[in-house]
């Protein structure tokens, strides 16, 4: 049907073939023509059909819409008000090529990988941030092309060009209001002061979807620290990671900066929060309006070399360690780089090595580690890199 979304699962072909074989009649088998067959489609009212759809996983809902014209009509009506849809765990989209934005999305509900396209993104190294079903992409070259989209329904919208010049380092974060579906986009730009390696200009630019306008509430100069590409919005506060550039090495090469963006008219200033230990990298995520950090733990004598991975939650500006990755999972990645990809939503955290498609999940609620099913891709060349991001699969929200 025109306008429908194609979903391809790499684990369904055998099942569908088996189901077809099970229902094929053998040659010579007689059919009792006297038995009256009543179509379920005839006796099933629309409201009950919508109720059944609400219990299905996202992929199954789209497939059900292809059964017939009536089901497609009910599906479109269901999309306009999917209030009864059961909560879905966040998916993880893994880019499988460094040159093309193609990849596969992992559905932890069905433990399957689905092949989906992202036609609104240029390359896999764009800046990416997600919140409540929406994903924002920003180009990595000029940092001026921004696209807000829903990867499930394929609806998208290009945003206005952010103010300011191109930057040496940039970080992107978004936050979606669950009631109004309005969203806030924040970009942290970091530029080296000309002729001074130790000083960096930091500027924060905020976009509000209701007013469709950018503001620049803060510009400041940091000494000995520069911004990076890691940030998140949590409870109206923008958090971003900064990196030490001073002359004398510090024990902790990372720090966290907090800035309140919930009140645009307040004279808020930047505040620094130390990291819990020496880190090789830090990944920030909003988990039910709690700031969670997944970090690579550096060796005491060689802080730039990873020895493990920890998960912390920020409580009253103090880090509380939740768990450390067991050694068997850490070694399960094989050769693990000092930096890695990690993102999470609600209770589920994804961790992925850049050097392989292996994907590990951690459930914050039940404190359980689990490998995802193997991604249906393999390395095409030794230095091929993989990365990804997680997002909530939602039908009711559009940019």
What does it look like?
The protein has 2 domains: 45-80, no CATH class; 91-391, Neuraminidase (6 Propeller). 36% of the residues are buried. Helix content is 12%, strand content 40%. It is built from 6 helices and 25 strands. A hairpin with a 7-residue loop joins strand 6 (134-138) and strand 7 (146-149). The protein starts with 7 loop residues before the first strand and ends in an 8-residue tail after the last strand. The strands form 6 sheets. A 5-stranded antiparallel beta sheet has the order 1-4-3-2-25, with no helix packed on it. Strands 5-6-7-8 form a 4-stranded antiparallel beta sheet, with no helix packed on it. Strands 9-10-11-12 form a 4-stranded antiparallel beta sheet, with no helix packed on it. It has 399 residues and is mainly β.
**Secondary-structure-derived class:** mainly beta
Please write the CATH class name of the largest domain.
Mainly Beta
CATH architecture of the largest domain: 6 Propeller
Widest sheet, order of strands: 1-4-3-2-25
CATH homolog superfamily of the largest domain: Kelch-type beta propeller
The shape, in one word, is globular
Distance between the first and last residues' Cα: 24 Å
Strand fraction band? 35-45%
* Cα radius of gyration in angstroms: 24 Å
What is the tally of helical segments? 6
Whole-number total of structural domains:
2
Which stretches of 5+ consecutive residues score pLDDT under 50? 1-33
CATH topology of the largest domain: Neuraminidase
């Amino acid at each position: 049907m025109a306008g429908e979304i194609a979903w391809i699962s790499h684990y369904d072909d055998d099942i569908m073939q088996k189901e077809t074989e099970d229902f094929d009649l053998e040659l010579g088998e007689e059919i009792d023509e006297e038995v009256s067959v009543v179509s379920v489609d005839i006796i099933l009212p629309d409201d009950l059909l919508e109720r059944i759809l609400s219990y299905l996983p996202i992929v199954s809902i789209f497939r059900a819409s292809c059964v017939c014209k009536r089901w497609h009509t009910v599906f479109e009506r269901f999309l306009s008000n999917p209030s009864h849809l059961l909560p879905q765990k966040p998916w993880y989209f893994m880019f499988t090529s460094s040159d093309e934005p193609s990849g596969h999305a992992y559905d932890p509900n069905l433990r399957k990988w689905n092949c989906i396209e992202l036609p609104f993104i240029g390359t896999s190294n764009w800046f990416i941030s997600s919140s409540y079903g929406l994903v924002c992409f920003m180009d990595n070259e000029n940092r001026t092309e921004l696209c807000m989209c829903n990867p499930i329904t394929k609806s998208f919208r290009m945003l206005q060009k952010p103010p300011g010049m191109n930057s040496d380092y940039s970080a992107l974060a978004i936050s979606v209001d669950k009631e109004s579906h309005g969203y806030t986009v924040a970009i942290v730009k970091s530029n080296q002061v000309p002729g001074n390696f130790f000083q960096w200009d930091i500027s924060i630019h905020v976009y509000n979807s209701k007013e469709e306008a950018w503001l620049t509430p803060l510009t400041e100069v940091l000494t000995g620290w520069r911004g990076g590409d890691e940030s998140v919005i949590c409870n109206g506060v923008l958090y971003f990671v900064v990196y030490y550039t001073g002359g004398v090495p510090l024990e902790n090469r990372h720090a966290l900066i907090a800035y309140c963006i919930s009140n645009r008219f307040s004279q808020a200033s930047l505040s620094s929060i130390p990291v819990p230990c020496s880190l090789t990298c830090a990944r920030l995520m909003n988990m039910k309006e709690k700031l969670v950090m997944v970090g690579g733990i550096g060796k005491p004598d060689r802080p730039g070399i990873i020895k493990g991975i920890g998960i912390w939650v920020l409580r009253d500006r103090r880090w509380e360690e939740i768990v450390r990755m067991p050694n068997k999972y850490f070694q399960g990645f094989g050769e693990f780089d000092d930096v890695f990809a990690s993102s999470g939503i609600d209770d589920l955290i994804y961790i992925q090595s850049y050097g392989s498609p292996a994907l590990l999940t951690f459930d914050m609620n039940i404190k359980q580690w689990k490998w995802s099913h193997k991604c249906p891709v393999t390395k095409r060349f030794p230095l091929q890199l993989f990365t990804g991001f997680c997002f909530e699969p939602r039908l009711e929200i559009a940019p």
